[in-house]
């Protein structure tokens, strides 16, 4: 991964944010900028330096992890305040990440920087994280391939009598044994009326013949996540209402995916999915946004919703995941994680969507 340019990319946003330095406290953002994977630390970025302040647990781990980014490491004890303040000497306007600094931290930092203005900033690092480099794409693609294989390992359990919990455990087992660091989030397996809940948790409920089953899961490789949903009918297609729903949402997803390309408004992808479902009389059953960015976080910018204002850019990795949810009957969702390219997209999740 191209860690070396990331700090300079961040500094390029300082003027626009009205800051001379930034205190990065979001650990995912610290990881993105420096490579540091520890669970405690703050990163100070000035015009010409970057300093990661962490504690003794990371004295061995941190320096080699951050070396490629050009970040220095300081192991803090009781001198934490002086380490930070000394390094920011001369900066009058110090940015904080408004979305990750707690009230208590803000008060603590205000005490540290008595002579400076503390400036709330939003999304400076998250903006950079939207466009993935080749190393990041390779990691997401590896995670997606593991999830594809974990599902293929588990499809024999998509039969009447198996519980949601056991099917989810089989998928999780496949994700782990095929080399992922972890699951990207808690695997969703929802069947029958449970599938009408977009974020259902697996229960002891067993799959019944003819039930809808929604499986939404992903893997993590070197910090990067994948996200995919497949929807099934237990026992295979019968030509009934469950299959009509699966077809309608599959068509909606195809319409959304067909829009995905560099320069396309985010809201256009959402509108394409929604248009297909409206024509099928299912507009009111599609109760969430169409997709989201995926990377170090499972949900990150950009959001693909009707109110989104930006455009897709080459290097974005996003999901397209329309769904319908009908109380009592159940739900259907199809989701893929795709890389946005100049003239379209490349699917990173590839498990079959045919019956
Ligand atoms: Zn998902
Ligand atoms: Zn998703």
Notable traits:
3-stranded antiparallel beta sheet, 355 residues, binds zinc ion, single chain, 22% strand, Creatine Amidinohydrolase
Describe this structure in words.
The chain is α+β, with helices and mostly antiparallel strands. It folds into 2 domains: 6-129, 3-Layer(aba) Sandwich (Creatine Amidinohydrolase, Chain A, domain 1); 134-347, Creatinase/methionine aminopeptidase superfamily (Creatine Amidinohydrolase), CATH 3.90.230.10. It is built from 11 helices and 19 strands. It has helices at 6-11, 14-17, 27-34, 62-66, 80-87, 103-112, 124-130, 134-154, 164-177, 241-259, 266-279, and strands at residues 21-24, 42-45, 50-54, 72-75, 93-97, 117-121, 182-183, 188-191, 212-217, 219-221, 224-225, 228-233, 291-293, 300-304, 317-320, 323-326, 330-333, 336-340, 345-347. It has a 6-stranded mixed β-sheet. A 3-stranded antiparallel β-sheet has the order 7-10-11. Strands 8-9-12 form a 3-stranded antiparallel β-sheet, sandwiched between helices. The chain is elongated and about 70 Å long. One zinc ion binds at residues 227, 292, 319, 321, 335.
């Amino acid at each position: 991964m191209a860690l070396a340019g990331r700090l300079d990319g961040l500094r390029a946003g300082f003027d626009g944010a009205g800051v001379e330095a930034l205190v990065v406290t979001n650990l995912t953002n610290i990881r993105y900028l420096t490579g540091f994977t520890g669970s405690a630390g703050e990163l100070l970025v000035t015009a010409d330096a970057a300093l990661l302040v962490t504690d003794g647990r990371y004295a061995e781990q941190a320096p080699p992890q951050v070396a490629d980014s050009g970040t220095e490491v300081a192991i803090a004890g009781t001198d934490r305040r002086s380490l930070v303040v000394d390094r920011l000497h001369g900066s009058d306007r110090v940015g904080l990440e408004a979305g990750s600094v707690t009230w208590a931290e803000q008060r603590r930092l205000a005490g540290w920087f008595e002579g400076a203005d503390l400036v709330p900033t939003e999304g400076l690092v998250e903006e950079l994280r939207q466009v993935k480099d080749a190393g990041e794409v390779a990691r997401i693609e590896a995670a997606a391939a593991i999830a594809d294989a974990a599902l293929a390992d588990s499809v024999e359990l998509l039969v009447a009598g198996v519980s949601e919990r056991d099917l989810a455990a089989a998928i999780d087992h496949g994700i782990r044994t095929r080399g992922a660091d972890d699951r990207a989030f808690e695997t969703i397996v929802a069947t029958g009326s449970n599938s009408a809940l977009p974020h259902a948790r697996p229960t002891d409920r067993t799959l019944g013949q003819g039930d809808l089953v929604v499986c939404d899961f992903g893997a993590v490789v070197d910090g990067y996540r994948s996200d995919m949903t497949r929807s099934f009918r237990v026992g295979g297609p019968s030509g009934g209402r469950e299959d009509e729903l699966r077809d309608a949402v599959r068509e909606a997803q195809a319409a959304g995916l067909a829009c995905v390309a560099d320069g396309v408004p985010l809201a256009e992808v959402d509108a394409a999915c929604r248009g297909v479902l409206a024509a099928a009389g299912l507009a009111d059953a599609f109760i969430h946004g169409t997709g989201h960015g995926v990377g170090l976080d499972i949900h990150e910018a950009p959001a693909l919703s009707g109110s989104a204002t930006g455009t897709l850019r080459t290097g974005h990795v996003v999901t397209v995941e329309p769904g319908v949810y009908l109380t009592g009957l159940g739900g259907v969702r199809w989701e893929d994680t795709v890389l946005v390219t100049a003239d379209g997209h490349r699917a990173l999740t590839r498990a079959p969507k045919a019956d």
